[in-house]
Write a structure and sequence with these properties.
Helices cover 39% and strands 18% of the residues. It is an alpha/beta fold. The protein folds into two domains: 226 residues, nicotinate phosphoribosyltransferase (Alpha-Beta Barrel), CATH 3.20.140.10; 167 residues, TIM Barrel.
Length: 457
């Protein structure tokens, strides 16, 4: 998936235009950000910036890719791209500077998650891939954080691979869900690639393959006595719990324990209460009850309110697809470009829709915190102008990840990123929904550009 052709055609047609107009090497700055927080919230957990950095640092046009581009034609049937342009792409030295908000951080609307600086043509070519990587993973990490917050300390298992948007979407979702706080995944490939703990039970088909549920449970414990979690709702759920208990008693005689049972249908609140009573009465107080079945943060909150006795939550479709909002809507906008005299010229995207008016300049974020580490205010400022008021306990968020095409930021473990995300999301209740301000000099530059283009500030 590290192809330079992981892009929209219009990125390459614009790149071709820059090349023909001798603008390809003009230095520019772009910012990747989102305008509205998803799920009715006011912040996101950043995810995907590390894979995005890897994408840029390894990027090049291969011979096969350039040969393919040479086959594309315009409406007149002639080649869409000159051979000279394809030769330019082949020999191009990637020299982008990239700054990122590191994964696991909180980010608010209009704050740059990534800042890309370098030759205009290169900044343009990478736009689509960066949005593809960062939008989805940030969305899923945020959904995972919301679900884990609803679970209130209970383990959350991501079970969504079979419902994910293709193999690549499944891997990205497992990675992002873990960053957001999920405890483990059912996705074995994600476990191998990212070091995420893997968990799993068995399906209804296992039970249905035997003449009785009891036979199925006992056969499973014989095959895997050190990992027994039994799915009890293939037939009558509470009878299934009773059969699991009988299997657990035999398992104990072998020196093992019934680790858990799983409920996957029906009234989960009432069934979990009944199951807990049966397990406790039989001496299986430490056997966990795992629940699945189209759960999300809203369903978990309701089940807890109704007194459900559920210890662990298996979340699939509604996590890995971000079911209630399947796209973040992040954008990538030009903030500044050098003129022929080498001076930076700020740029702003204008619109009658105020939320679509971008912020000009080479942007950076200063985060002010109180003595307890809670966010007080984020200030978006122009790095070339500096910060008007630094204050105390100030943290600069955008960190240099690539310099002149070379990766310089040491990659963190996914476990460290996850711990940061969990801490930030736990503290989000202390964070007011409106804390993003523009530095006065950015605000003035924006007003000036609006006025110059006939818009009332």
């Amino acid at each position: 998936m590290n192809s330079a052709l992981l892009t929209d055609l219009y990125q390459l047609t614009m790149a071709y235009g820059y090349w023909k107009k001798q603008m390809a090497e003009t230095e520019a700055v772009f910012h990747l950000f989102y305008r509205r927080a998803p799920f009715g919230g006011h912040a996101c957990i950043v995810a995907g910036t590390s894979p995005a950095v890897d994408y840029i640092s390894e990027l090049k046009f291969t011979t096969n890719e350039l040969e393919y581009l040479g086959t594309l034609t315009g409406a007149d049937g002639k080649a869409l791209f000159d051979q000279g342009f394809l030769d330019y792409l082949r020999d191009m030295e990637w020299k982008l500077d990239v700054s990122i908000i590191q994964e696991g951080e909180l980010v608010f609307p209009n704050e740059p998650i990534m800042r890309i600086q370098g030759p205009l043509i290169q900044c343009q070519i990478v736009e689509t891939a960066l949005l593809n990587i960062v939008n989805f993973q940030t969305l899923i990490a945020t959904k995972s954080a919301r679900i884990c917050a609803a679970a209130d300390g209970d383990p959350v298992l991501e079970f969504g691979l079979r419902r994910a948007q293709g193999p690549d979407g499944g891997l990205s979702a497992s990675r992002a869900a873990y960053i957001g706080g999920s405890t483990a995944t059912s996705n074995v490939l994600a476990g191998m690639k990212f070091g995420i703990p893997v968990k799993g039970t068995h399906a209804h088909s296992w039970v249905m393959s035997f003449d009785t549920e009891q036979q199925a449970f006992e056969a499973y414990t014989e095959a895997m006595p050190n990992n027994v979690v039994l799915l009890v709702d293939t037939y009558d759920t509470l009878d299934g719990v009773r059969n699991a208990i009988e299997t657990g008693k035999k398992l104990r005689q072998q020196g093992h324990e019934l680790l858990g049972i799983r409920l996957d249908s029906g009234d989960l609140a009432e069934l979990s209460k009944g199951a807990r009573n049966l397990l406790d009465e039989a001496g299986f107080q430490n056997t966990k009850i795992i629940a699945s079945n189209d759960l999300d943060e809203y369903a978990i909150t309701k089940l807890k309110k109704n007194g459900a006795r559920i210890d662990t939550w298996g979340i699939g479709t509604k996590l890995v697809t971000a079911f209630d909002q399947p796209a973040l809507g992040g954008v990538y906008k030009l903030g500044a470009i050098r003129d022929k005299n080498g001076e930076w010229q700020a740029r702003v995207k204008l619109s009658n829709d105020l939320i679509k008016v971008s912020n000009p300049g080479i942007l950076q974020i200063a985060r002010h915190k109180d003595d307890d580490g809670h966010i007080v205010e984020d200030i978006i400022f122009d790095e070339t102008l500096g910060l008007s008021n630094e204050g105390t306990n100030t943290e600069i968020l955008l960190t240099t990840a690539i310099q002149k095409g070379i990766k310089v930021l040491q990659e963190e473990s996914l476990h460290s990123v996850r711990e940061r995300a969990i801490t930030h999301w736990q503290n989000i209740k202390h964070t007011p929904p409106t804390l993003i301000t523009l530095d006065p000099r950015v605000e003035q530059a924006k007003r000036d550009l609006l006025t110059q283009n006939g818009f009332a500030p």
